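Recall the central idea of this unit: under ordinary conditions, the amino acid sequence of a chain determines the structure it adopts. In this exercise we apply that idea directly, starting from the sequence alone.
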Amino acid sequence: MDPSRVSELLHAYLAAEYRWQYDGSWHDVIIGLPTPGLELAYPEATSFGMLSAWNPRSVERSDDDNRRDDDALHAQLVAGGYGLRPAFASARNRSWREPSWLVMGMEVGPFDALARRFGQLGTLWWRPGEAVRLRMDAPRPPDETGDVDVDWLQ
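Accordingly, the structure predicted from this sequence is:
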């Protein structure tokens, strides 16, 4: 992927709103901050991650294709026995919104492999008590240096 496109998407992901659903309400997840409410709700969780199967590599697809892959991702997470909550990511102006899953207890290696399988460029992953990290499955563009809350996977 072109480095300028990766930079554009990085900034969109960093500016996005992330939320997870619990007991009929939606709760924020903010890159760079811990998630004490989530940890109180799920004290047994050893890790948290947010990923989607929608629009691989941030290229828009049909709702039918996105729902099919979301169903496959959900089935794989359920089969793995992971704790799950509905979640989503959206632009602050709501120009885009993608359903996601908040996953509990999946180690980072399998999490990254699953995200890669579903073509996801950006995901979130963190451990209890730690700040939420954006994980980018791309090489760091040469002009990106101030991304303290980002893990570059390539």
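The mean pLDDT is 95.
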